Amino acid sequence: MNRPDLIRIPLLALLGVAAFPAVAQTPPPAVAPTLSVPTIQPVPVPPPPVPIPALSPAQEAWANDWLKNGAAQGLMARQKASGPLSGDALVSALLDRAKALSTGRVDTADFLQIWALRPGAFDPRPGLAKAVSEDRLSQWSTGLTPPWSGYDTLRKGLAKYEAIRDKGGWPTLTASSAPDVVRARIALEDPAVTQNEKLVDVIQRAQRRYGLEPTGTLGTRTLAELNVGVDDRIAAIMANMERWRWMPRSLPVNRVQVNIAAAVLTVFEGDQPVTSMRAVTGSPTNQTPMLTSSIHSIVVNPPWNVPMSIANRELFPKGRAALARQGYKIVKTPEGGERIVQPAGPGSALGRLKFDFNNPFAVYLHDTPSRGKFSSYDRLASHGCIRLEKPVALAELMVAADPNLNGQIQTLIDEGKTQRVSLPSQVAVYLLYWTAFAGNNGTVSFRADPYGWDKLLAQKIEASSRRVDPTAAPSPAIASKD
């Protein structure tokens, strides 16, 4: 991440005239000047909190019953039976639950810095006060959760995995497990499995759900995914439901979304997916951040100004002669140091196109001359930026509204010049980390958790719930890992 330069003010400027020799000072005037008294601006006083009317006995009964669905919404792995709340304790629990469902259980102060996708501010008091006064608590509650089908389908999937957990989970498979055992194990997650279906088809469908190459055989990676514990699957679902709560309540109808964990980019137009492509995202040691921004321009034939972290770790140790043979240039910096630049061209690490958007991590989308990774099922290998399988097609979509640029991207590339192309309108971009997503029938697809963010976030959800939610019960499988 780029660190802003410090602003340095000369000491003499801070000391003012007292820093100059006495002989250089202007003699004081005969009459002392009148001192102007600065106007003191009053500190704005925040308005008092919206009062919550007293709940009727029927409303209290409804509220206590509603508070029992925290585990069903992924706010805790298990819920404890607790006595009914009333008065201020009940109101406090309702406000806490409303905020957790609307913008997330975990406070942003407890986010990792690289989780730069942050929920908007939300005050639940006015809505709750109105719902109590109008006796519409049920309608109020339904509007708290994210309006996206991605959240609702995960909620259905969570119920399914909690039921599997409560029945004892699933057996551990080995390469020598009997076909009927394998079939029964996969059927716990996949309702489409039938007794007469070929086992190879059953395994292939499972492999696709896990983002693995569909070989139809029980290889090492397939067995590893099938043997992930049900508690860990629940933790993944909880973490992804929480990330949905961080999302805005409306999205631009034209946007680019990158699933970092799956290494896939999808383009939306009119709120419908129109194309997708494989991508290469950050390796576990060079994580791609979660964030939202807007792509404002495309650099055609970009040179690569190598970040100093990469230069010092990977390039300078090769020696100047080796770098020169590989086409790199070492240039002086204004501060007297050196940096490495890879000139534009077919061998540039950025390929022929770079898509720029403002962010504090200096990441972007770009082309690449190394195409081999796109045919792989393991595509988390970059330094944090996103390499694109079809960058020219993406650029053409973004400039199509400009008659001077429409259909001209390849022509600009062929000119060989480095030039920046401003987009006719900026395109929203979302870098997201989805490791669990479900279909309408509750069948959940999973991806590996390469950055370890799922378990960490699930632990934070549990810890936050235990601090403030009187219905939260410690989970020996997840919460005890704090």
UniProtKB/TrEMBL annotation:
Phylogenetic placement of the source organism: Bacteria, Pseudomonadati, Pseudomonadota, Alphaproteobacteria, Sphingomonadales
Location of the region described as Disordered in the Swiss-Prot/TrEMBL record: 463-482
Stored InterPro entries: LD-transpeptidase_YkuD-like, LD_TPept_cat_dom, Transpep_catalytic_dom
Family, similarity comment: Belongs to the YkuD family.
The L,D-TPase catalytic domain, residue ranges: 254-412
Name of this chain's protein: Peptidoglycan-binding protein
Keyword Transmembrane helix listed: no
Pathway(s) of this molecule: Cell wall biogenesis; peptidoglycan biosynthesis
Residues of the signal peptide: 1-24
Pfam family, one: YkuD
PROSITE patterns: LD_TPASE
Key words, A-Z: Cell shape, Cell wall biogenesis/degradation, Peptidoglycan synthesis, Signal, Transferase
Classification via SUPFAM superfamilies: L,D-transpeptidase catalytic domain-like (SSF141523)
UniProt key word Iron: no
Highest taxon above the source species: Bacteria
